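Saturday, quiet lab. Running sequence design on the structure tokens for the scaffold JK sent over.
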């Protein structure tokens, strides 16, 4: 089971889970300023939820 550490929180999630959804569900702030309201809601077109990842991860998809 993957472990995600962000903003002082350690979160366990299912393999293959959507990282954006996992972080938001656990109260991790992904967006700055107006991007909290104006973002693509995970379509992958705006880049406002970009994060840096360390460690082993699955292959990227669209
Ligand atoms: S909300 Fe993640 S790319 Fe737009």
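Result came back. Writing it out in full:
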């Amino acid at each position: 089971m993957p472990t995600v550490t962000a903003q002082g929180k350690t979160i366990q999630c299912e393999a293959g889970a959507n990282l954006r959804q996992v972080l938001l569900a656990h109260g991790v702030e992904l967006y700055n300023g107006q991007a909290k309201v104006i973002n693509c809601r995970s379509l992958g077109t705006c880049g406002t939820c970009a994060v840096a990842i360390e460690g082993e991860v699955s292959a990227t998809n669209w």
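Notes for JK: The first helix runs from residue 19 to 25. The pocket of FE2/S2 (inorganic) cluster is lined by residues 20, 39-42, 44-49 (CB under 6 Å). Ask whether to fix the surface positions before the next round.
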